[in-house]
Amino acid sequence: MQITFWGAAQEVTGSMHLLEVNNRRILLDCGLFQGHRAETYERNLHFPFDPATIDTLILSHAHIDHSGNIPNLVKQGFKGNIWCTSATRNLCTYMLMDSGHIQEQDVEYLNKQKQRKGEAPVEPIYTQRDAQICLNQFVSISPHRPVLVTDGVELTFHNAGHILGAAFVQVDIREQSNGKSLRLVFSGDLGREETTILNPPETLAAADIVLMESTYGDRLHDDYSFAQKKLGEVVSRTARRRGKVIIPAFAVGRTQELVYALNELDAHGDIPPIPVYVDSPLAVNATDDLLPLAGGSTSVLPDPAANIGVNADCDLMRLNSPNSEMWNRGGGYDWHFHAIPNGRKNIHFSGHGFIAGTVKEKGQPDQPLVRRVQLVSENARVLVAETWSDATGAYLFELIDPSQRYTVVSYDYKQMYRAVIADNLRPEMMP
Question: Which of 5, 10, 160, 291 could share a disulfide with 317, CB 3.0–4.6 Å?
Fold first, then answer.
């Protein structure tokens, strides 16, 4: 067995580690290196190995410094499976598209400068289309479920407590050359023991090799209550001055933690009643559309009235449900998500169209059903949104792009093998 570190070794970006065992090549993460433009472009564009020779990819979580170069890997010939949790796959649907959009915009700006200098234009590392294509190779598995990913290599995910879907990787290896068995653990990024909206990191009793991230290994963090108190003091002091608090934060993970902390401060009267805005389409998508998918399990009957979640953890994390008392309290004020103009909430599939329908028992048209319902873009072949039909069987997807065609799939949450499919749907225009 051989391990080669191609990123995030003595640096904090571009996680990428190559594991070679049993004549197979397994990539742990495939993140974008983030730095100065010239260095970043060349380093991300060219891999230190032939992507076509990689047999499989194991992805710890969706952050771009861990997942962001997957579209380029596929573009350059990688054809294997991309193993991850279901929530990571869902987050990548948005984050890789967003990254592709940024690549296109950055190259457009750079090429304008090159044109003025008489220099040859450059191509983006990958495009939104490349991001869409790579999603076809994602295979999501549940935590704690061992899966044989290649010869003699068994993969198990464990909760890392970092962001939604984040996992540390347990790889159990049986070397065919000598019959020896060993366990390699790759941490990905780990969260704190004291968390608010996510479960804390799990632990393992034993491992033979551990690849551990250590970004904050030499630092002691303040406990959550102290940090929350300091946040409340800043907000209150600024509000008394009639100022505005602007908080730059990662769109996935940190934004949701901040919103939760602000809600807690407000609920206890520790900050004055002020509106809160999340001004990031990606952050809104992560909070509004994807958090209900966290568990990847539909064994628990949802709450149709709230139109949320498949388990308790998901319900807790869906912070901006329009029916949630957390957001719309009688006699109080509303917390808002202010994303992009015209009320659109999805940066890639937004618009003023809607699709409505009813889920009913097969062969019994008068029997409505409460079921999980997914909206899939036929153009991009990616999951756009997910909801539940209510007690009357009715479901509604709104603020979607009317120029695209969609497939609607409703699942039997009890068995997960029966599905009702309506395809080639064109949205109607909202009033």
Answer: 291
- Indicate whether this model's pTM tops 0.70: no
Owner of token pair 């060219």: 46
Q: How far is it, in rounded angstroms, from Cα 272 to Cα 265?
A: 9
What the block records as the tokens of 39 is: 């260095």
Residue with tokens 């997957």: 70
Residues 67, 61 contacting (CB under 8 angstroms)? yes
Contacts of residue 309, Cβ cutoff 8 Å, sequence gap at least 6: 292, 295, 302, 303, 315, 318
For residue 339, pLDDT over 60 is answered with no
Amino acid at residue number 215 = T
Q: Does residue 358 carry a pLDDT above 60?
A: yes
CA–CA dist 241, 386 (Å, integer)? 42
Stretch among 239-253, 261-275, 283-297, 315-329 having the lowest mean pLDDT? 315-329
What 8-state DSSP symbol labels residue 254?
A: H
Tell me what pLDDT residue 324 has: 34
Fold of 2-211: Metallo-beta-lactamase; Chain A (3.60.15)
**Tokens encoding 119:** 């220099």
Give the per-residue pLDDT at 283.
Answer: 79
CATH class of 349-429: mainly beta
- For the domain spanning 224-341, the CATH number is 3.40.50.10890
For tokens 């869906």, name the residue: 318
